[in-house]
Specification:
By secondary structure, the protein is of the alpha/beta class. It has a single domain, classed as 3-Layer(aba) Sandwich (Rossmann fold), CATH 3.40.50.10320. It has helices spanning 14-28, 49-63, 82-95, 110-125, 166-174, 177-180, 196-210; strands at residues 5-9, 33-39, 67-73, 99-103, 142-146, 158-161, 216-220. Strands 3-2-1-4-5-7-6 form a seven-stranded mixed sheet, with helices on both faces. Strand 4 (99-103), helix 4 (110-125) and strand 5 form a beta-alpha-beta unit. Helix 1 (14-28) runs antiparallel to helix 5 and helix 3 (82-95) crosses helix 4. The longest helix has 16 residues, at 110-125. It is globular, with a radius of gyration of 17 Å.
């Protein structure tokens, strides 16, 4: 069955950190959600690819995602090549998502930046009838860029209220004990003196406060967001 929403990221655990609450909320709302991890994380300093695979499977069960697959592209050597695009397109045509969540295209980890560019290009090319890749053409309707942990001054286009899903998000993140237990930094997350789990709660609370809720996850879209009913706009101004 097609997915309503697919999160694509470079490494196992990236999705849990940046948009795990949003996926859990979509599932609670009755949507079908999935995760495509582009690499196995074999170059990570902590843990092993085999251990991270087990952790990812457990985390997927906690979030409730309907599909989780790994493209097995090379970790720390990810590139936006024709071969890599063909791999991603194969999954896009298989899952046929309406919405795709990608990493923000600027990041200190090269794999995160390249994953965003690679997946964005694959989303477009997947819709070309003559593009040589398995499956029927399909182009996602919407691409969202996850903004969590950005240090550059990017204002979110919107924030998703994940207050009811935050405990599940944290439980899924804690599955990656090989990566996070005792850590104070990970991926795009810079250290502040807090342990990583406390830092995630602080960041999520900050974005939640922007929309007057307990916890939130921020997103950016380059296109303008449509509002159909200005009377029902949320987030109090004064």
């Amino acid at each position: 069955m097609p997915l309503d929403i697919l999160a694509i990221a470079a490494h196992r655990d990236d999705v849990e950190l940046t948009c795990g609450g949003t996926l859990a909320k979509a599932i609670d709302q009755g949507y079908r959600a999935g995760i495509l991890d582009l690499t196995q994380g074999e170059m990570g300093t902590r843990g092993t690819a085999e251990l991270r695979a087990q952790e990812a499977l457990t985390a997927a069960g906690i979030l409730g995602v309907h599909e989780r697959v790994n493209a097995e592209l090379p970790d720390a050597r990810l590139c936006n090549s024709d071969d890599a695009r063909r791999v991603v397109i194969t999954y896009l045509r298989q899952f046929r998502p309406r919405v795709v969540i990608l990493p923000y295209p600027v990041g200190r980890h090269p794999d995160h930046r390249i994953a965003s560019e690679l997946a964005r290009d694959a989303c477009f090319l997947s819709g070309l009838a003559k593009y040589d890749a398995p499956g029927e053409p399909h182009r996602p309707f919407k691409i969202l860029y996850a903004l969590a942990y950005r240090e550059d001054p990017v204002t979110p286009t919107f924030v998703v209220d994940i207050s009811d899903q935050f405990a599940r998000k944290m439980e899924a993140i804690r599955c990656y004990a090989s990566q996070f237990d005792g850590a104070t930094t990970a991926g795009e997350i810079f250290p502040t003196g807090q342990d990583l789990y406390g830092l995630i709660e602080t960041q999520s609370a900050h974005y939640g406060s922007l929309i007057r809720c307990r916890y939130g996850e921020p997103y950016y879209t380059p296109e303008t967001v449509e509002v159909s009913d200005v009377v029902q706009l949320r987030v109090q101004s004064m």
